[in-house]
Amino acid sequence: MAAPDHTPSEPDEIRAEAKGTAQVPLSVLDLVTVGAGRTATDALRTSVKLSRLAEDRGFHRYWVAEHHSMPGVASTSPAVILAHLAAHTTRIRLGSGGVMLPNHAPLVIAEQFGTLEAMAPGRVDLGLGRAPGTDGATAAALRRTERLNEGADDFPQQLAELTRFLDDDFPSGHPYARIHAVPGPIQATSPGGVQSPHRPPIWLLGSSGFSARLAGTLGLPFAFAHHFSAQNTVPALDLYRESFRPSAVLDSPYALIGVSALATDDEKEARRQIMAAALNMVRLRTGRPGLVPTPEEAEAYEFSPMEREFVDSWNANVVHGTADEVRSGLDDLQKRTGADELMLTANAHSGDVRLRSYELIADAYQLPSTGGAQA
User: Taking the complete model, does pTM exceed 0.90, yes or no?
Assistant: First the structure.
């Protein structure tokens, strides 16, 4: 499949500059987590506060991820959430980390993100994944089919179709040549039409080698899910760089990694908080998804030996502690992986804990404040 053929993205639509004392740009991944005793409304209000904080403190981009049928994760509809955040921010890049392409018709995604681009011109990212973002039964309900492998296997073709819709360049004679994603380029070619010069840059997301190789072959930016597939990070990034072919989008590789990171004022408190998030993962992995438990519930929980082994392994990849400890851990991870950007996700029961974590990390890296954050 040929690389996407469109006007090259502006440099700052993909690449970013590090701020403060950070080695690479820092960004935010928001899972819109819902804690026990809290509502989805509470979680979404935290997301607004966090997006404003991230914008004020110089984080480069703010992504939300598509998940389904998980009570503790309220990010089922990335486009809807991003539209809400666009109304509350003015500068920070907003995007999906990601939209699960096999769950949707490519035309629908092109329309949704074309609309987002019209709402927030020049600051929308379209990150795409090929996993369902849920269990098999839920994926079947989303896709209205039991042939779930077909979606993943068809990912390159779905990606090509989505790109064609975004660029409005299906060849003459193609069944979709007369179909146009609106808002989109067709408006510029209509009588009296004027169209934005921007279109959302596509990122490929992955937790293994498949999307790494595809992103490299197509010359697209790549985001790797280090936060839940740490053992595959270095091999996937190596594969991406080895496979990379320059394109109209990028002349050299650009890769970010998602990292679980939680900073608190006290190292012991960080440990308490990540144990609650780990218990949530234990329940999810054993078919008992629920709201994110409180640290007190996690302290009272009796982990089985197998669960304890999982928790120890999981928490080993969470960068946590005081702000200085988190900064040191992130710097070490960046050096080890060579990531061009770090996208931080703070998983905790309390929205206030998550907000404080990003504040502490921003302070640790001396990220400049514009004074524009709002409560």
Answer: yes
